[in-house]
Amino acid sequence: MSDAREARLLLLGWNFRGASGPVRERIAFTTEEVREGLRRLLGKGLVSESVIVSTCHRSEIYGIAEGKGAGEELTRFISDWRGLEPDVLERAAFRRFGAEAARHLFRVAAGLDSMALGESEVLGQVRQALSIARETGSSRAVLHRLFESAVRAGKRVRTETEIGVHPLSIASIGVELANKVFGELAERTVLLLGAGETGTLFARHVLEAGVRNLKIANRTPEHAEHLASRIGAQAVPWETVARELPSADVVVGTTASPEPIVRRADVESAMRQRKGKAMFFLDLAMPPDIEPEVRGIYNVFAYDLDGLEEVAAENRRRRVREVPRVEEILEEELGRFLTWFGNLSVVPTVTDLKRRFEEIRDRELERLPAAERERVRPLADSIVAKLLHEPMRRLKNESDAARKLERLEAVRHLFDLDPD
Questions:
Q1: Quick one: 156 and 12 in the same domain?
Q2: Which of 137, 164, 166, 300 is the most buried (most CB within 10 A)?
Q3: Domain boundaries, position 383
Q4: 352 and 324, same structural domain?
């Protein structure tokens, strides 16, 4: 498409709300598959611009297309490419057009459409999607402007609100609580009990927090040694856990042992050797790895899963309270984009509408004899001009960008200005 005359912003997507895990897996794209998909979409002429956002929770195709059937054509394209039945894709898909497609992307970039409200990783994924599209040559004037605007909105949300400040994951909350006790964890020693999935996840979190001295103990020593070698930690024998306590500032239990591993007497002994210096215990296991009674020891800070869930629930409430301010920012930035996009579309739509009226005028005049036709033409021209004047004026002067786009879409639909 060489100009913006028939430019129509559309979104075809699948996410965790409407698509099952197996469907999302089938339509999740690697980076190279995104590049291939963009090349195919443009090569088939389905869109003139395209950006694909693909994560574990969503696959969304943004495009600038001609005509009314582009959404259905995109569904058939994905069906053929990924080997999924069209009706399966159709049931799980959602579509957005014009202002609503743009608004959806802004909400995605801000973390409002994520499973974890306000999560920040998705902003980087939106930025990466634009980068890939630019490399492929599939992002041009409209989508480049749209995605740049969405990224800018997402950055503002991060800096001007606290929607991403309070962690929601148990591991992140544990690290934050430990930071509150010690100020920072970089110089602290962390003893991790267990090398399974939960232990591995927590190990990554503390390393990201700057911890340099991480010790791992596991009943099966090979598991502790394997994890330690992968992440640059130190494996210690399971039977020495009690002897490791005096040197440990943070102790994390993740084994779900039938009996507690760390008992109150062990902690009392460790605190005497530490001369009362603070210890932080985080019990992520069920049944607990750490005796609940350690909470009664002076300068010992201990949290179990119930306590962490309470913090997580409060953090979720804090994030929800930030949503109105986030939406204000998004609507402000969205309005700027829609104003630009609307101005891009008003003149072509008005031109097409004028052309349509003139076609009708000419067809009707052709029914008249030549002499009468020339006599009536000035009157017909005047009627066309008067009929068009007010709609054109209203379209051009509409100050609400979203309403302007909606009216442009309505005009193009009502007067059949788009090709089939």
A1: yes
A2: 164
A3: 345-414
A4: no
**Which pLDDT does position 68 carry in this prediction?**
61
- 56 catalytic? Reply is yes
pTM of this structure: 0.73
9 φ/ψ angles, rounded to the nearest 5 degrees: -80, 130
The DSSP secondary structure of 98-123, one letter per residue, reads HHHHHHHHHHHHHTTTSSSTT-SHHH
Regarding whether 331 and 293 lie in a shared domain, the answer is no
Number of domains present in the structure of the chain: 3
Active-site residue, from 56, 186, 265, 286: 56
Q: How far apart are CA 109 and CA 112, in angstroms?
A: 8
Per residue in 233-283, pLDDT tens? 999 999 999 999 999 999 999 997 899 999 999 999 999 999 999 999 999
Residue 355 burial by Cβ neighbours in a 10 Å radius (0-12, 13-18, 19+) = exposed
Q: Is the pLDDT of residue 348 over 50?
A: yes
Q: How are beta strands 189-193 and 94-97 bridged, if at all?
A: unpaired
Query: Residue 115 belongs to a domain with what CATH number?
Result: 3.30.460.30
* Same structural domain, 196 and 266: yes
